[in-house]
Amino acid sequence: MKKVVILLLLLVAVSSIDACQSYFDLAKRDLMRQLNLLPKGAKAEKQPKNIILMMGDGMGYSTLTMARYKKALNEGKLAGESTLNIDSFPYSGSIRTFCADNIVTDSAASATAYLTGCKANRDCVGVGPEVTKDPDSYKPQYNGPDSILMAAKKAGFLTGFATNQPITHASPAPLYAHTHSRRYEYPVKCVFIEMSSSL
């Protein structure tokens, strides 16, 4: 029986990697296209010593615009006369968000995409698109794609994360957990407790 279970787990883990591969390939293609837009002879800057990824849950252009308007109002300025600290960051980018099974995403699926590079189905945390909502399962699935945090840890970097949400919330949870539902916060908390010393 143990051999069957182990084989089944291996098959599921491999299918997760295969399901995510198409997203990794698309990201690589898009990155190469952007790099080809650089002027000829442009040299890469020095490799960064550290990387800080700041992720705002639900933060889009309209949210930033409203924050600028609110700041301008508080300062007694016109709407276009005020900027945010984020406006002065030397590098920024934008992405298109959607989940594997729906054009409208949620925090769980979008955070999974940001943090693992793999699209997930709506409400799913830290798993590939082959995992769907399964109401009969209450245990986290440990076979999802590695997050950027886990990949950095495996590469020997010091890692950590800070959040103003509960650690079990759909936005930070894909850093360390794999489950088919963002609502299973207790099992996600158990995974965090088990892994917290290694994060």
TrEMBL record:
Active site, renumbered = S107
Signal peptide segment: 1-19
Q: Which Enzyme Commission numbers does its entry carry?
A: 3.1.3.1
User: PROSITE patterns this protein is in?
Assistant: ALKALINE_PHOSPHATASE (PS00123)
Which Gene3D superfamilies does this entry report, sorted A to Z?
Answer: Alkaline Phosphatase, subunit A (3.40.720.10)
Annotated residues for binding of Zn(2+): D57
Listed binding positions for Mg(2+) are D57, H169, S171
Family to which the UniProt record says this protein belongs: Belongs to the alkaline phosphatase family.
Q: What is this protein called?
A: alkaline phosphatase
